[in-house]
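The instructor's notes for this session suggest beginning with a concrete chain rather than abstract definitions. Hand out the sequence below and ask the class to guess, before any prediction is shown, which regions might be ordered.
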Amino acid sequence: MKAASANETGFLKLMDLDKGSIAIMDKGFNKYSYFDDLDKSGRFFVTRKKANARYDILQTMDIEQGSDIVKDQVILLKYKELKVYRTVKLRLVTFKDPIKGEVLEFLTNLMEVSAKTIAQLYKNRWVIEVLFKQLKQNFELKYFLSDSVNGIKSQIWVALIANLIFTVIERMTKKAEDFSTLVSIAAKNLCSYISFIQFITSPELYESLWKCNEEDLGKMQLRIFEDPGGG
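After discussion, reveal the predicted structure:
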C-alpha cells in the first residue's frame, strides 16, 4: 500500500467519469495531459493551480465589483510530455478568501459557469474531506482489521453507520458535547445501563444516582427511566 501522503496521480487511470461529469481534484492531480483528455472527451474538472505552472493569458474577463473573485482569465497552459511541448486551453479563476485573506488559483475547463461557481465547487470538495477526517479520528479507520475486500467493506460500513448515529445524537442533544467527546464517552460506558442522550443532557441525575445507597439505587433507576423529566 502507498503512504497516505502520496499524491493521487496514480488513481487517475482508475477514474471512469461519465460524460458531462465534473471532477474536483487537489494539486496532486495536476497531470496536464489528463486535463486535455478530459476537455476533449466532454468531461469537466476543477483543481488548484501549481505555483510553477507556465501559461499565456489569452483573455481577461470582467469580474463583479465587490466579489471575492480577483481575476477570471482564459489561458493557454504549457506542458511537456514525452519530450514534446504541448498546450491546453483552460480557465484560471483567482479567488481571495474573505475570512483568511488567502488567495487561491483554480484551473478548470468549465467556461460557461460563473467564476463564483468555480470557487464554490472546490469549496464543496472539503465536505468529504471533513467526513474522512472525522471517520479516521473517531472510528479506528487508520488501519484495516482485515485483508479481504468484504472485511474492509464491513469495517467501513460499520464506521459510517456509527458516524451517522452519533451525528443524530449530536443534533438531538443540541451539541451539548462536541462529536469526538460523545464518541469517547460512549466508548467508555459501553457496559453501563444508562440513557446515553439523557446522560449527556442531564448528567446531574446520574451523579445523584451514583452517590446514593444501594436501597435507594433501584428506586432512582425506576424514576429516571420511567420519567426522564423527573416530574
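Then share the key points. The chain has a mean pLDDT of 80. The helical segments are 32-40, 115-138, 149-172, 179-188, 196-201, 203-211, 214-226.
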